[in-house]
Design brief:
This protein is mainly α and 225 residues long. The protein is built from nine helices and four strands, in the order αβααβααβααβαα.
Length: 225
């Protein structure tokens, strides 16, 4: 994973997670400079319950233009968000992305036939530099996120991938759909606008429940190797 991009992302996450008031353990940091633009990754859908570790590596390393493949950092961020919610936690660990990615890579190399979801469960989270979704007001988050989207849209998209993965685990689905991120972000913004007093965790839970109901009416197809 790109060290520059991850470094910018950590700064943005710290900024988004800063809460005003005494006793706040998180320190605000200046807005990060925009990351260099990259080509948009093709839309793809994966079921991590059936996608093998070998298939995961193939998806990340695939460079064929005619085969859909995800942005690698967004993919890992989604998996990190999923892992956190699956563990019953509501804290995004700002410093966990890189160690999580390396640990998952090692786990998958050791057990290539294991499903990606099984591998995620075995990876230990590094609980450092936390952003507590249960204590972060969703209106405050959306306000800061709107600013980040203007200055660093790539980091904003990656952060939303993490929240989308978190929501997926809360909804009980194992499908990673890169094409659904925009819809998820819009639904989250609408929820926060309508119920500005909610925490970000409560808003995500509401969106997850709503999307889970819609998903039950029309289950999506997904890649799985």
């Amino acid at each position: 994973m790109s060290g520059l991009r991850v470094g910018l992302l950590l700064g943005v996450l710290l900024l988004l997670g800063t809460r005003a008031g005494a006793g706040d353990e998180t320190t605000a940091v200046p807005a990060a400079p925009p990351a260099p633009p990259t080509a948009a990754a093709p839309l793809a859908r994966y079921n991590i319950a059936t996608l093998s570790c070998a298939g995961y590596h193939e998806a990340l390393l695939n460079e064929r233009a005619d085969v859909p493949h995800p942005d690698s950092i967004d993919f890992v961020m989604w998996l990190l968000g999923y892992s956190i919610a699956a563990a019953g936690e509501h804290v995004m660990y700002v410093g966990a992305l890189t160690p999580f990615g390396f640990a998952l890579d090692a786990e998958c190399r050791d057990r290539p036939l294991s499903s990606l979801r099984e591998a995620i469960v075995r990876v230990q989270l590094r609980r450092t530099q936390s952003m507590d979704l249960a204590h972060l007001n969703c209106h405050d988050f959306e306000s800061r996120n709107a600013d980040v989207e203007k200055t660093d849209p790539q980091s904003a998209a990656t952060i939303m991938s993490g929240l989308q993965g978190y929501a997926a685990a809360r909804a009980g689905t194992t499908v990673l759909d890169t094409g659904a991120r925009t819809g998820f972000a819009a639904a989250l913004a609408a929820e926060c606008a309508a119920r500005w007093h909610e925490s970000l965790d409560e808003a995500i839970a509401a969106v997850a429940a709503s999307q889970d109901s819609a998903r039950r009416l029309k289950p999506p197809a997904a890649h799985g190797r």
